[in-house]
Design brief:
two-stranded antiparallel ribbon; 11 strands; alpha/beta; 381 residues; Rossmann fold; globular; binds S-adenosylmethionine
């Protein structure tokens, strides 16, 4: 786990932010006029050159490295070919603003702006990835709103995100559609296109619920250390891996269904030794925030990644002891799952309150893992 040079208590970085703020006060109106992005890009680039790989705070242990800071700065401090798998949800543009920081990639006014910001990160990530290993980007499509955009519809984020990643050198290798419960979405979003009322009054305006996507990219090149994840089966009795053929049959599907859509499937998660008890389907509520984030005030805006999604990707694409990375760490879901499965975690997060919770959650994963080990020892005795 690598320490990144720390600005004395993050002072240089914070001072730079303060001075820039003072010299360039920005109004809400300016943000809406998209002037902010141009300033942001220029500022971010200048600042990167001036303060390469500096963070505001960090916690480095044998099992994880948690960085409070901008993900691009953090990646710039990491060695070439050192990350075995990267799994993340970028800040969704036009949906949430996580902080006022000029580094906050959710602080943009369009998909194009967000991708231009993300490109800095993807370029660095490409350098840091082990050849032949995978990056997973979890996202949902943007929405066009009547008030803001003049119409109701979908704004394509998926396509431009694939193009941007390819331009950074990655091969587009696969994608998974994550099923959604349309009724839950309808209640939560009050989307007229999903409502029974519209079905009766004018069904011409109906549309299906938006799914999530997990885009799968690979760095070209030979994977230096194979991941032998497959467990023993009739055909391969000698195999020593951790994934059963039954699990792969389910996980190889292009759609990962919700638990509610898999009638008759049983709860086999604990048997398989997995973190998420309902391992057979992806529950909307299978997130770390449901378990822990009561004290993170704006948890409802976080949009935490579902733990079973992370779990399948970690188990399929890494060996125990390898490094799993998340540039947009949030409250630490990726690291939590990675640690529970005896991988190492490298995470960055910009927002102070999330970073604090992230560190707590990573420590909780280690505590739970150790408790499990003691329990297993007890059982075996
Ligand atoms: C969609 S959320 C990620 C949630 C995370 N997957 C989880 O399950 O907790 C995106 C996160 O990116 C963070 N973020 C935005 N810009 C960032 C940057 N430049 N560097 C690091 N984190 C950033 C936001 O504060 C937010 O927590």
């Amino acid at each position: 786990m690598r320490e990144i040079q720390l600005t004395p208590e993050g002072k240089a970085l914070q001072e730079a932010l303060r001075q820039w703020d003072e010299a360039n006060p920005l109004t809400e109106e300016e943000i809406l006029k998209q002037q902010r992005f141009a300033a942001q890009s220029k500022w971010a680039q200048e600042s990167l050159n001036k303060y390469p790989s500096k963070v505001i705070d960090q916690k480095i242990t044998d099992s994880y490295a948690a960085y409070h800071g901008d993900c691009v700065h953090v990646l710039r401090g990491l060695p070439d070919n050192s990350i075995h798998c990267s799994i993340f949800s970028p800040p969704f543009p036009l949906m949430y603003t996580y902080s006022n920081s000029k580094y906050d990639m959710g602080n943009v006014t369009s998909i194009a702006e967000m991708l231009e910001q993300c490109r800095y990160m993807m370029e660095e990530l490409f350098r840091c990835m082990v050849p032949g290993r995978s990056v997973f980007v979890h996202l949902t499509q943007g929405v066009a709103q009547k008030l803001r955009d003049g119409y109701i519809g979908i704004k394509d984020l998926r396509g431009p995100a694939i193009k941007m990643a390819e331009e950074c050198g990655f091969n587009f290798y696969g994608e998974i559609t994550i099923d959604k419960n349309a009724q839950v979405k309808s209640i939560r979003t009050r989307d007229v296109g999903l409502a029974f009322k519209s079905l009766v009054s004018d069904s011409a305006q109906m549309h299906s619920a938006l799914s999530d996507f997990v885009l799968h990219f690979r760095k070209p090149g030979e994977n230096p250390v194979p991941v032998k994840a497959g467990g023993a089966s009739k055909k391969y009795p000698e195999a020593k891996g951790w994934i059963t053929p039954e699990q792969w049959i389910l996980w190889a599907r292009p759609v990962w269904y919700g638990q509610d859509y898999l009638p008759g499937t049983s709860n086999n998660g604990t048997k398989a030794g997995l973190t998420c008890p309902k391992n057979v389907g992806i529950q909307e509520t299978d997130t770390l925030s449901t378990i822990t984030a009561k004290d993170v005030q704006d948890e409802k805006h976080l949009c935490a990644l579902q733990l079973p999604v992370i779990e399948r990707l970690v188990l399929l694409h890494t060996n125990p002891g390898e490094i799993v990375h998340d540039p947009f760490g949030g409250i630490g879901s990726t690291g939590y799952v990675a640690l529970k499965h005896r991988r190492k975690a490298v995470l960055s997060e910009l927002k102070a309150s999330y970073y604090k919770q992230l560190v707590k959650n990573l420590d909780m994963a280690l505590a739970e893992r150790n408790a499990l080990t003691l329990f297993e020892l007890d059982e075996a005795a």
